[in-house]
C-alpha cells in the first residue's frame, strides 16, 4: 500500500508500519500544504530583506514567533544568491531555531554543543553570543565536523569556537575559563615551543600526512575516540591560543565542573530523523530499502536510545550548578524522546525538567511529559522536532549531593558555596552598616 503525501511522495509500507508501531499518525506527513523553507537573517542585515527577496526571487515572510527567522517557498534555491554566499542568510528550520531559543543564551555563556554537525544550530548560538562567551562543539564524525568548520569560517563566526572530534558520551573537557590565569606566559623554554598558535588550515605537510595515516583504519578511528579528543579548529578568542596542550586537555578535579562547567548544553542527539519530511524524501532517490536499513531497523533504534540517554547524561554531568541543558531530536517517536527523558530523570534525581518560557507563542504541542514540546509538520509547519529542557538547580543539587551521580567531595563544594553566600551576605550587611555610621 502506498499513500500520497503533499509532494506526491509515496510513503512505503515499511515506513507506515514504523509509524504505526511508534503510535505516530501518518497524517502529519500528508499535509496538503508543504512545509516552507526557513532562513535566519544575520543580525544587522534587516535592512537588506528587499534586496535579498530580489536575489532569491521570492518573498521572505517574517516568522512572527521567532526573531530573525523568515519563511520562503520550499522550492526556492538560496545557495546561488549573493546573500547566502556573503553569509547574510543561512538555512535553518524554525523548529531547530526554537530548540536553540529554548537554551536562553545570555551574553558571556560558555556553551557545549554535544552533537554539533553539520552546524546550523551552532551558527545560531555563535550569532547570539556575538563577541562574548565561547562554544565547544563535539561530533563523532570527522567529515561532518570538518563541514561544520567550513560553515563557521564561511559565516565568520568561529572567533570563540573550538571544535573537537570526540565521542559525546565520554567528552569531559571544561570551558577554557577554568584554567584562565594559568596562562601566565611564564613557561619553561621547551614548553614555549608547544603553545597553541593562531589556527590555520595550512598545516605543515608532515603533520597532515601523520594525521591522515592515523585515520586510515576503522580500528584506529575507534581507538582514537578513547584517546584525547582531536581539536580540529579553534578561533582566535576561544581561549586556546597561548595555552599548552596539557592546559587544554587538563582533567578536572571532581568539584571543578560544578563551579566551572558549561552554562548551557545542547544535546541535539543522533536519531532516526523520521520527523523530517525532507530527510525522508531523500530516500525516494536513495531507495526505500536504504530507508529500511538506515532508519527503521529496530536494532538500530534500540542502540540509538541507549546512545541518546548516554549523551544526555554526559551533557548534564558537564553543566555547572544553575546551568541548563536542551535535549532535542528530529524523531517523533516516544522511545527516542519522552522515554529517554523519563529514564534520565529517574537516574538523575538532581535534574529538574523546566518549562520553556518562550514557547508560549510557539506553534507546537506538549509532549507526553508535561513541559516537553513537539513540533510536527502538520501543526507547526516546520520539520518535526522534540524539545525538553533540564536544569541543574542549586537547591536540588544540595539535596542530592550525597548521591553517587556527582563526584565524591561535591558536598564539600556545596558547603563552600553556602559559606561564600553567607560571607557575601555578611559583608554586604557590614558595608551597609558602615554607610549608616558614616552618615
Ligand atoms: C541530528 S545531528 C546534529 C545536528 C546539528 N546539531 C545541527 O544543528 O546541525 C546528530 C549528530 O550527532 C553525531 N553523533 C552521533 N553519535 C555521536 C556521539 N557518540 N558523540 C558525538 N556526536 C555523535 C552525528 O555524527 C551527527 O552529526
TrEMBL record:
Q: What CDD domains does the record point to?
A: AdoMet_MTases (cd02440)
Similarity field: Belongs to the class I-like SAM-binding methyltransferase superfamily. RsmB/NOP family.
**Catalytic positions?**
330
For binding S-adenosyl-L-methionine, which residues are annotated in this chain's numbering? 139, 167, 268
- Gene3D superfamilies membership: Vaccinia Virus protein VP39
Provide the protein name: SAM-dependent MTase RsmB/NOP-type domain-containing protein
Q: Where is the SAM-dependent MTase RsmB/NOP-type domain?
A: 24-393
**SUPFAM superfamilies associated with the record:** S-adenosyl-L-methionine-dependent methyltransferases (SSF53335)
Q: Which UniProt keywords apply?
A: Methyltransferase, RNA-binding, S-adenosyl-L-methionine, Transferase
A single GO molecular function term of this UniProt record: RNA binding
One GO biological process term is: RNA methylation
Origin organism is Rhododendron simsii (Sims's rhododendron)
Amino acid at each position: 500500500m502506498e499513500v500520497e503525501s503533499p509532494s506526491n511522495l509515496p510513503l512505503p509500507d515499511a515506513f507506515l508500519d514504523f509509524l504505526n508501531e511508534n503510535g505516530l499518525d501518518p497524517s502529519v506527513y500528508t499535509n496538503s500544504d508543504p512545509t516552507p523553507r526557513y532562513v535566519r537573517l544575520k543580525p544587522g542585515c534587516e535592512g537588506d530583506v528587499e534586496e535579498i527577496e530580489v536575489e532569491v526571487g521570492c518573498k521572505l515572510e517574517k516568522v512572527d514567533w521567532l526573531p530573525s527567522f523568515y519563511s520562503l517557498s520550499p522550492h526556492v534555491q538560496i545557495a546561488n544568491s549573493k546573500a547566502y554566499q556573503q553569509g547574510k542568510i543561512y538555512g535553518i528550520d524554525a523548529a531547530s531555531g526554537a530548540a536553540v531559543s529554548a537554551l536562553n543564551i545570555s551574553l558571556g555563556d560558555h556553551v557545549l554543543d554535544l552533537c554539533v554537525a553539520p552546524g546550523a544550530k551552532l551558527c545560531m548560538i555563535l550569532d547570539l553570543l556575538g563577541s562574548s562567551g565561547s562554544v565547544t562543539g563535539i561530533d563523532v564524525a570527522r567529515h561532518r565536523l570538518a563541514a561544520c568548520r567550513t560553515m563557521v569560517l564561511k559565516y565568520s563566526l568561529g572567533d570563540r569556537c573550538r571544535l573537537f572530534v570526540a565521542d559525546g558520551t565520554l567528552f569531559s573537557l571544561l570551558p577554557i575559563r577554568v584554567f584562565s590565569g594559568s596562562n601566565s606566559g611564564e613557561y619553561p623554554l621547551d614548553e614555549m615551543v608547544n603553545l597553541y598558535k593562531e589556527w590555520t588550515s595550512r598545516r605543515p605537510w608532515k603533520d597532515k600526512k601523520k594525521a591522515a595515516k592515523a585515520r586510515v583504519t576503522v580500528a584506529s578511528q575507534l581507538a582514537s575516540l578513547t584517546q584525547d579528543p582531536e581539536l580540529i579548529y579553534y578561533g582566535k578568542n576561544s581561549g586556546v591560543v597561548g595555552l599548552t596542550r596539557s592546559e587544554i586537555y587538563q582533567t578536572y578535579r571532581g568539584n571543578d565542573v560544578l563551579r566551572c562547567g558549561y552554562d548551557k548544553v545542547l544535546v541535539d542527539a543522533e536519531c532516526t530523523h523520521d520527523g523530517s519530511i525532507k530527510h525522508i524524501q531523500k530516500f525516494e532517490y536513495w531507495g526505500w530499502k536504504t530507508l529500511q536499513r538506515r532508519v527503521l531497523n529496530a536494532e538500530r533504534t534500540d542502540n540509538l536510545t541507549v546512545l541518546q540517554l548516554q549523551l544526555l547524561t554526559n551533557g548534564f554531568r558537564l553543566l555547572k550548578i544553575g546551568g541548563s541543558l536542551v535535549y532535542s531530536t528530529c524523531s517523533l517517536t516516544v522511545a527516542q524522546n519522552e522515554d529517554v527523558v523519563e529514564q534520565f530523570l529517574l537516574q538523575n534525581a538532581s535534574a529538574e525538567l523546566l518549562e520553556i518560557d518562550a514557547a508560549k507563542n510557539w506553534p507546537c504541542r506538549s509532549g507526553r511529559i508535561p513541559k516537553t514540546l513537539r513540533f510536527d509538520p502538520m501543526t507547526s509547519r516546520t520539520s518535526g522536532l522534540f524539545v525538553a529542557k533540564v536544569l541543574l538547580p542549586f537547591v536540588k543539587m544540595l539535596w542530592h549531593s550525597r548521591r553517587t551521580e556527582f563526584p565524591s567531595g561535591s558536598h564539600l563544594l556545596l558547603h563552600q558555596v553556602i559559606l561564600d553566600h553567607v560571607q557575601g551576605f555578611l559583608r554586604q550587611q557590614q558595608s551597609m552598616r558602615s554607610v549608616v555610621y558614616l552618615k
